[in-house]
Q: What sequence folds into this?
């Protein structure tokens, strides 16, 4: 998990570097206020990446052994996450310029949609190979985790499609995903103590 955590940590750190200080110190307050698209893109993207990190741990806490397929899918997921600072920068620039907002929201939403797709593919794969899963995960817990991951597909897709029509509404729908997805998943367990002393799956 250390490699995955490091990639995610770098991605969220790069987000703040995209917020450039105003050049005109003589009108600093006004300049700071006009950076609101950068603040918005930063907060929404940071919190969504935080959810990716949390649910990544939820998933891999249930994976006893990761084979080559899981490692490959996880690598593609991390590649997508590493792209998010760029998508957030495009989003903030579009809203700041008042042009290209539809494309920017689509890019931002599709990047998260790809992450949701990869989560679902990985979870479906490990469920088809029970030997990869921990013995303590029961059927209800596996179903609950899968249901939450599938919900992300529809929710983010809906926000992305709405954003193509009404950019601000699309961002609002995607942002509304944040508080809901921090709710615990049924069957989620804290296996941190059990994982100590043995290598992580990714």
A:
């Amino acid at each position: 998990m250390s490699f995955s955590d490091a990639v995610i940590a770098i991605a969220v750190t790069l987000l703040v570097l995209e917020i450039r200080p105003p050049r005109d110190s003589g009108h600093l307050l006004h300049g700071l206020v006009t950076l609101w698209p950068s603040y918005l893109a930063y907060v929404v993207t940071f919190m969504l990446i935080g959810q990716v990190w949390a649910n990544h741990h939820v998933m891999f806490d249930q994976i006893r052994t990761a084979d080559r397929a899981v490692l490959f899918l996880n690598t593609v997921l991390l590649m997508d996450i590493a792209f998010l600072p760029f998508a957030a920068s495009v989003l903030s620039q579009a809203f700041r310029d008042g042009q290209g907002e539809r494309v920017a929201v689509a890019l931002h939403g599709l990047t998260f949609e790809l992450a949701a797709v990869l989560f679902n593919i990985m979870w479906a794969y490990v469920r088809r190979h029970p030997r990869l899963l921990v013995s303590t995960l029961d059927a209800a817990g596996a179903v609950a985790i899968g249901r939450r991951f599938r919900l992300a597909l529809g929710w983010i897709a809906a926000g992305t499609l709405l954003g193509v029509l009404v950019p601000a509404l699309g961002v609002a729908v995607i942002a509304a995903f944040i508080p809901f997805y921090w709710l615990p998943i049924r069957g989620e367990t804290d296996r941190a103590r059990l994982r100590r002393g043995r290598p992580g799956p990714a």
